[in-house]
Design goal:
elongated; about 25% strand; single chain; 2 domains; M20 family metallopeptidase; 18 strands; 6-stranded mixed beta sheet; Alpha-Beta Plaits; alpha+beta; 10 helices; 4-stranded antiparallel beta sheet; about 375 residues
Length: about 375
């Protein structure tokens, strides 16, 4: 790094404060102001930048530093949306949730860790490369997405996109405390719509009450052993109901119940197996309650993945960590990310970023400033490989 590297650290702090102060809350999907921040920042650097419309007032941003080489490029990606702050949660914050206050070596605010710190680190790293005229051996792309915190519409809109055709590596800058996640767990979720029959609330109707039928499904899920798909390192997948909603008034036996199911998958355990097991459970319940009708709506399938430690991407990161005297720790990432989608075009994926996953989606979200600067250094070095 050049002697003026400290200027870029200061720039990164200022940019992150601006970003955290933008309430790009999703749902409902208020990313437009954040989209404009990213777009304006990159275009002012005279870096080739595009807005990709996903929905009205929702845009992905692709910004590309071009090299003279035809080597496959590398993508650095981060999402622009943040989860909401509930009224109850806001009372537990030590600072205003969208303040971007710096205190005791941390920068606080919703999105500080998940994941505007990673996104801003990419932006400033590309600025460093551009302003210092550093030669690069392949194209470098910033991919800033919308809707990651919900249905991942942003990354899904970029599968097979012509601008990213010659990119074969993806660095997802999600919160990992700068540890290297070369394993991503999968997720699949959906809704079971259960039909029973209405009746008077004074009558016990085990075979009609849609809630009691849903309870049978939940109990059978709890009795189902998923260990036959266990991974020798990462253990077993798990599933659970995350929401239940029934219709009609409390004095009427409900004839309709909606059960939302979520499954988290270890490597080599794929979504189709989960829904096959749900089908089997519904068949069993149907034999007990012949009048039951149930329909499944699968809302998403995000498959687990592994990037081999011998890939060029992993080896480059390992070499950079050794040269910078960073501790090289590999692990799995418990959540799902845009990397799950962007890898569908045959790319190697690694997740590494300055935030801490255990501190996100709750009060007093923050990022360690020392990690922020580490991320800037890592991304800048990796862009030069």
């Amino acid at each position: 790094m050049s002697n003026n590297y400290s200027n870029y650290e200061e720039e990164l702090l200022n940019l992150l404060q601006k970003a955290v102060r933008i309430k790009s809350i999703n749902p409902p999907g208020n990313e437009l102001e954040m989209c404009n921040l990213v777009y304006d920042y990159m275009t002012k650097l005279n870096i080739e930048t595009y807005k990709i419309e996903v929905e009205e007032n929702r845009y992905d941003i692709i910004s590309i530093l071009r090299s003279e080489s035809k080597n496959p490029g590398i993508i650095f990606t981060g999402h622009m949306d943040v989860v909401p702050v509930s009224e109850d949660e806001s009372t537990r914050w030590e600072v205003a949730p969208f303040s971007g206050i710096i205190k005791d070596g941390f920068l606080y605010g919703r999105g500080a860790s998940d994941m505007k710190s990673g996104l801003c680190s990419i932006m400033v790293a590309m600025r460093y490369i551009k302003e210092n005229n550093i030669p690069i051996n392949r194209d470098i792309a910033l991919v800033a997405t919308v809707d990651e915190e919900d249905s991942m519409k942003g990354s899904k809109a970029l599968v097979g996109h012509r601008l990213l055709e010659n990119f074969r590596e993806v660095v997802v800058c999600e919160p990992t405390n700068m540890e290297i996640c070369n394993v991503g767990r999968g997720r699949t979720y959906g809704v079971i719509d259960i039909k029973g029959k209405t009746g008077h609330g004074s009558q016990l109707s085990v075979d009609k009450n849609a809630i009691l039928i849903a309870n049978k499904i939940i109990n059978k899920m709890g009795e189902t052993d998923l260990s036959d798909k266990a991974h020798e390192i990462y253990g077993s997948s798990f599933w659970q109901p995350l929401a239940i909603h029934a219709s009609v008034d409390p004095w009427v036996v409900p004839d309709d119940c909606e059960l939302k199911i979520d499954a988290r998958l270890v490597p080599n355990h794929f979504s189709d197996d989960i829904w096959h097991r749900i089908d089997k459970i519904l068949t069993e319940v149907k034999t007990e309650v012949p009048s039951m009708q149930a329909n499944i709506t699968i809302l998403d399938k995000r498959e687990p993945w592994i990037t081999d430690e011998n890939t060029e991407l992993m080896q480059n990161i390992k070499n950079i960590y050794e040269s910078l005297d960073y501790e090289f720790i590999t692990q799995d990432f418990k959540g799902t990310t845009d990397g799950t989608i962007l890898r569908k075009d045959g790319r190697d994926v690694v997740i590494v970023g300055p935030g801490l996953l255990s501190g996100v989606h709750k009060e007093n979200e923050k990022v360690l400033i020392k990690n922020l600067f580490k991320a800037l250094r890592l991304y800048t070095e990796l862009m030069q490989k």
